[in-house]
């Protein structure tokens, strides 16, 4: 199935973009700016992604997103292979990557329901979660090794190959996804307003949404600064950077398997709250470890 394609290429791109931005500029601030350029389209285009998945055939949306991703990866590969690679062309094309992911994600997630139907969707989501975490491990590891052994051009070429493999592997599903995901007849603004109203009027959904926004703004950006940590604190290269980012995927995989093994006998609310509270403590411990390395 094509499900892990975006996660694999996303993990590869996280390593490649961060390391290249640091190599090209030597500035942690410019690394953060490149990460912002990659993520900003998700904030702008993201709210429209669900509307697009409802109004257009999701098969076409997924094909367009994956084909666009392959084209951008190939373009970046050619730019760096010819020696024309620079910071600003990298940032510009990476922002297009972000816009494509914003369209890909909602169409991909709702495709599971369409293909399998209600009886098997829970099992499919569990399998998808496992495959996503495996992809989050393999993508960064592959990118780190590729950057260290071959270079940036080969890394982007490998990303293009992964996109093409996803298109080929999923070719048999597009016929099942020929119709739009929903039957909305109102305007785009009305659809967005209705979605926000539905989320905000449900206390549980509202709380999860606010916590998710806070975590994505205040916590998860640490991943974008790991290239600086790897080079300046650990005195390591892109291989170690790939391993650092893959470690998060490894932990997520263990967590997903633990939850799946409990067959629904876990208090999801308590588990979610505990994860939110423990995560900043772990990040503070990482900061303490940085001091230990520097003083040692």
Q: Ends: how far apart?
A: 47 Å
Care to count the β-strands? 0
The main sheet comes to: none
Task: Please tell me the overall pLDDT.
Answer: 83
Tell me the series of helices and strands, N- to C-terminal: HHHHHHHHHHH
**What's the helical proportion of residues?**
over 70%
The number of distinct helices, counting runs of at least 4 residues, comes to 11
Oligomeric composition of the shown chains = single chain
Over the alpha carbons, how many angstroms does the gyration radius reach? Answer: 20 Å
Q: Beta-strand level of the residues, as a percent range?
A: under 5%
Shape: globular
- Structural class computed from helices and strand pairing: mainly alpha
Name the poorly predicted regions: none
What does this structure look like?
Helix content is 82%, strand content 0%. With 296 residues, the protein is an all-alpha fold. The chain is globular. The protein starts with a helix and ends with a helix.
List the helices and strands and how they pair.
Layout: H1 5-25, H2 28-55, H3 58-81, H4 87-116, H5 118-149, H6 152-169, H7 188-200, H8 203-218, H9 226-233, H10 238-261, H11 268-295
Please supply descriptive tags for the structure shown above.
296 residues, mainly alpha
Short overview:
This protein is 82% helix and 0% strand.
